[in-house]
Design brief:
By secondary structure, the protein is α+β, with helices and mostly antiparallel strands. The chain has three helices and ten strands.
């Protein structure tokens, strides 16, 4: 069962994103909350369709997952928010990015405020979202996107 977030739920989502990442930007999308608390973005125009009569395999762009300790963003969700987020955004070194793309957790001291989720950044590029726990950045990079060799400038 899927639900398109109503105005109240959307306001709560925006408040959570503001609290977690100090995100002040606009999100001009409709949000779908699917099973397992996964959130997807779709065009607001699609939200007007009577989707109950349709059989759909996938909805929109995967944005993230609503969890008890906050919202864990997908890499695409982090990229949408990252440029306008000012809190819990962590800059990685070239070596840390290479280790992250190999699927490794990162030992790093981070100034985390509030929730445990971080937006990861290398120079000007947003590379994803991870959870910070016990002085480690836990790797949430999708296995399908991991690589042993990464060329970075």
């Amino acid at each position: 069962m899927i639900n398109i977030l109503n105005t109240r739920d959307l306001k709560q989502l925006k408040n959570t994103l503001q609290e977690q990442f100090c995100f002040e930007g606009e999100l001009n999308y409709a949000f779908i909350l699917a099973e397992n608390n996964k959130m997807y973005l779709i065009s607001k125009d699609l939200a007007r369709i009577d989707y109950q009569k349709l059989r759909v395999d996938k909805w929109g762009l995967y944005f993230g997952e609503r969890r008890s300790d906050g919202i864990r963003l997908s890499p695409e969700g982090a990229q949408l928010l990252g440029k306008k987020a000012t809190k819990n955004v962590i800059q990685l070194t070239k070596e840390e990015v290479q280790a992250y793309f190999r699927g490794e957790d990162l030992d790093k001291e981070c100034p985390v405020e509030g929730n445990p989720y971080l937006i990861l950044k290398y120079k000007k590029d947003i590379i994803g979202c991870a959870k910070y726990k016990e002085k480690k950045i836990l790797n949430y990079h999708p296995k399908a996107h991991r690589t042993g060799e990464l060329i970075i400038n």
